[in-house]
Here is the input.
Amino acid sequence: MQLLAIQRILGLLLMMFSITMLPPELVSWWYADVAQGPFITAFLVILGTGLVLWLPAASYRRELRVRDGFVVVVMFWVALCLCGAVPFALSESPDISLSDSIFESVSGLTTTGATVIQRIDDLPPSILYYRQQLQWLGGMGIIVLAVAILPMLGVGGMQLYRAETPGPMKDDKLTPRITETAKALWYIYLGLTVACALAYWLAGMTLFDAIGHSFTTVAIGGFSTHDASIGYFDSPLVEGVAVIFMTIAGVNFALHFRAWHRLSVRHYLADAELRTFLALLFVIAIITSIYLYLSGTYPGLLESLRHGVFQTVSISTTSGFTTTGYHDWPLFLPVLLLFSSFIGGCAGSTGGGLKVIRVLLLFKQGMREIARLVHPSAVVPIKIGGKPLSGRVVDAVWGFFATYVAVFAVLMLALMATGLDQASAFSAMAASINNLGPGLGDVALHYGSISDPAKWTLCLAMLLGRLEIFTLLVLLSPGFWRK
Here is the structure.
């Protein structure tokens, strides 16, 4: 283990992160709100911490090994979440505890969208902006992590991005150099954010709200500058913009890169994961809308379609925006939507969940086993896009799924041990490990009423979900630390 190399990179990353405290400080100065001090203090603390880590190892230039990469990724995300909590902990509005500050930071950076804060409309503009910015930074971090870093490290489940997987990514990286990959993804991510902000603004939002919601829409985060979320605007046009950009952000960013690079939509049309993703959204939206109409939840078919489509896209992509209290809908629908979040977005997107490609492969594996029962001697390959997958990829997906289920069960039992009822514990764990946000029962509106042990458990679940589970669990393996 090259501790000096890890220390050097961690210090550099923290110094870079400290710069993100300056934009909310400018917002605070512009609006003359009461939250100016916390951001300056946070900037100095994080910058100083980064310098202390970096200076002793500044001249250490050796290449990272695979094990070093795992440690860097995990340590940076943990450090990032702790540093991101500093402005919340120091601010007088909101006046929340250290545990709540860390929970809000973890939720923001992992793009989960679960919040412990009530009366969001009354927060200072700088804090409102900072919450939105956290999710935007976390969303981009996930894209670079998933497409540029994890394939290089060979993290479990991410073998889907390797050459043996049919689809847009034929190599470990989109471009020959990882820095070029990250740069290309930044351009796409930034371009989508600007386009989303302009669309929101033209749809009737204020410029402040448009920028803030574009951050969390493209990041599939779900934080809002209002307690009522997107429902605050009560605008079909705003909701339409959100649906379009949530769907775009739920697509593999490698596809966006290929389409932009070659000025062609052929890659979208040929991608089996995208077709499955859109088909699932369509079917669930139709079921939800028809059920809302037949149950009389809304007065007309158009109103049922409006809320049904929006909530389907929001929950299925794990965005977590709301236009109404979907937890008050007929019980079948909240559970259906919650289950849809387990599928989540496409691999290589800012969405959470298992990812569509894994669910598709699990389904195909199930169908293959049925075919083998009928024809025991037959050789039935699993194909995606007409090309067979290697057994290694299928094994990786099964391993990920089994670990996911086991982790979910253990952490859900831990939540119930803190006093949460079964429905609340299940929905809270689903919303956290899938990086969704809103749950049911005691966590339908916010997470402020649950105990601190429950919040720490959910913080772990959010990190596990965001880091693809194995990235974090591998550090607990004794074999990882053997020379």
Summary: Confidence is low (pLDDT under 50) at residues 145-172. The two ends are 8 Å apart (CA to CA). The CA atoms of residues 27 and 126 lie 5 Å apart. The beta strands are 383-384, 387-388.
